[in-house]
Amino acid sequence: MELSCQFCRIVNGETSTKFLHEDNNLVVFKDIHPQAPVHLLIVSKKHIRSINDLEDDDREIVAEIIMAAKLMAQRHGISKSGYRLFFNVERGGGQVIFHLHLHLIGGW
């Protein structure tokens, strides 16, 4: 855990963030600045700074993040109409919180 990382604090239950899903490797919650009717963040419990910091041992986490996105799209009724998944990587790619997370947006 990184002491200054907002997502580490959320993952560790140090905030009032409500989880929509949680398992051994990740949590899912609503983005506080949604860009769509459905805007969820799928966040690794392990502190991985960004895509650029992934190691071979992290493959399972990334696969689980993608599968959780599929499940959340189904649960939120947007799997058939369509949705967007994206990772922001580094400041130039729009990353603001440096902790691995996937955005799921849809519902327009």
First CA to last CA: what distance? 36 Å
Helix content: 10-25%
Tally of strands: 5
What's the helix-strand series? Answer: HEEEHEE
Any idea what the shape is? globular
Q: Which architecture per CATH?
A: 2-Layer Sandwich
Mean pLDDT, to the nearest integer, reads 95
- CATH homologous superfamily (4th level) name: HIT-like
Itemize the secondary structure elements and their pairings.
Blueprint (H helix, E strand, L loop, with lengths): L5 H6 L9 E2 L3 E5 L7 E7 L14 H17 L7 E4 L14 E6 L2
Antiparallel strand pairs: 1-2, 2-3, 3-5, 4-5
Structure commentary:
It is a single chain. This protein is of the alpha+beta class and 108 residues long. It has a single domain (6-106), classed as HIT family, subunit A, CATH 3.30.428.10. The chain has helices spanning 6-11, 59-75, and strands at 21-22, 26-30, 38-44, 83-86, 101-106. The longest helix is centred in the middle third of the chain and has 17 residues, at 59-75.
Keywords:
single chain, five-stranded antiparallel sheet, alpha+beta, HIT family, subunit A, 108 residues
Summarize the structure.
The chain is an alpha+beta fold and 108 residues long.
